[in-house]
Amino acid sequence: MDRGGDASVDGITADRAAGVVAAPTPTQDDVPVLEEDESLTVHIPGNDTLGEPATEARVTLTGLAQADRLPQGEYLDPQVADPGTTFVCLEFKVENTGTAEFDTAPLTQARWTGKDGETKKVDQEIGGDCEGLGLVKENLLNEADPRAGEYVRGTTLLMVPDGQPGALEFADSLERALFKVGTTANR
């Protein structure tokens, strides 16, 4: 019997018989949503080829703010978002629950997808800080990666389109989705 080109023995494909099972690719609806004051555990598989161990951390979204202007202190002008965009400040607490150092870099960039399907890659905005919006001053990009049993707090500052609600999807270095955070229209 032809099973779409898969060699099979008694209805079992050769890959499955050898114990090789492809992990299902998560759909956009399968990616967990992280809300403010909530936590979730993030697992990043290791890479044997590069000698990288698997890592794990408990990520808490301790603060979330959107603004078109970021206050920068008493004597500095506020940082202003580009026309048609808004700043999104995310404050994270990252607790390493694994045995290897946890790289926080995946929490400093995201893929933004709007309600209408528009999508774009957004990277950390360098030079601005979220302290004027009531979040911690420390930028997650500059904090040490926590070792086993340690944690760090820091913010990620991103700029997204402001005309529609959407979601920021954070992923590991192989673009496997970790979690999403919702954004609102800011007009």
The gist of it:
The chain is mainly beta. The chain has one helix at residues 14-17; strands at residues 8-9, 12-13, 39-44, 55-67, 69-70, 79-80, 85-96, 109-114, 119-123, 151-161, 166-171, 177-183.
Largest sheet: 4 strands, antiparallel
Report the helical percentage.
under 10%
Rg of Cα set: 20 Å
Low-confidence stretches: 1-26
Tell me the strand order in the biggest sheet: 3-4-7-10
Topology:
Layout: E1 8-9, E2 12-13, H1 14-17, E3 39-44, E4 55-67, E5 69-70, E6 79-80, E7 85-96, E8 109-114, E9 119-123, E10 151-161, E11 166-171, E12 177-183
Antiparallel strand pairs: 1-2, 3-4, 4-7, 5-6, 7-10, 8-9, 8-11, 11-12
Features:
4-stranded antiparallel beta sheet; 12 strands; 40% strand; globular; mainly beta; 187 residues
3D structure, described in words:
The chain has 187 residues and is mainly beta. It is 2% helix and 40% strand. The protein has one helix and twelve strands; from the N terminus they run E-E-H-E-E-E-E-E-E-E-E-E-E. It has one helix at residues 14-17; strands spanning 8-9, 12-13, 39-44, 55-67, 69-70, 79-80, 85-96, 109-114, 119-123, 151-161, 166-171, 177-183. The strands form four sheets. The protein has a four-stranded antiparallel sheet, with no helix packed on it. The longest helix is centred in the first third of the chain and has 4 residues, at 14-17.
